[in-house]
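Bug #77: duplicate submission created two jobs. Keeping one. Sequence:
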Amino acid sequence: MWRYAVGAIYINDQKYNADLVIFDKDGTLLDFGKTWIKVVRGLIVALEKNADKKGKLKQKIEAALGISVDTGEVDPFGPLAMGTFTECDTLISYCLYSSGIRWDRARDIVHSTEQEVFAGGIREHNVVPADGSLGLLKRLKQRGIRVAVATNDNVTDTTRDMESIGVLSYIDLIVGADRVDKTKPDPEMVYKVLDELGIDAGKTILVGDMLVDTLMGKNAGVMLTVGVCGLLPRDVLEEYADVVITSLNEIQ
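Kept job's structure:
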């Protein structure tokens, strides 16, 4: 029964007493590749149709975001992996602009197409939870540990993603890039979570798959940073994170 003590978390048989766990979203609570490869593919198809540029945008958008929808490769240091939703919007808009579409029109097409794709279910139907995410969030809830999400995505879409994978009820707070002035690795997201939930950084664990997540946690002075292997190899994460895991199932 000791393994299920209130406020206790176990990673690699090491016990941590925490009041709060802050998770990154993409690549941590969501399977990055399985989710975003399909979503970006659907977005490209819709953009080429709406911009009347069939077959002319795919390579530009892939190069701009650092992704290949054919091979499933994602640059872990590219805009899709590290950038904000707004930054990716701007890059995609530039792809349309560089294809001969007036800048204001390009922005309008991107925004309206994203609304069409996301509201039409392409994003909702392709959101895939990371292995172990549901079970972990349930365990944290049962032990009275608060849960927050800090993401470079926006709050509205993140809320929908969490609802799509069935974990929204386990999450106490979502802070997105649209709620802060400075994004990762700046600690502002963590500070906002701590302030709104009234919890000390010294009782907080941060879990993420990218270096900006770990650096954000360290900049905020959290008790522990946990790196999740995915886009980045273990040896890179081990240089920065306090603990490195291959799956959320390793957090008990």
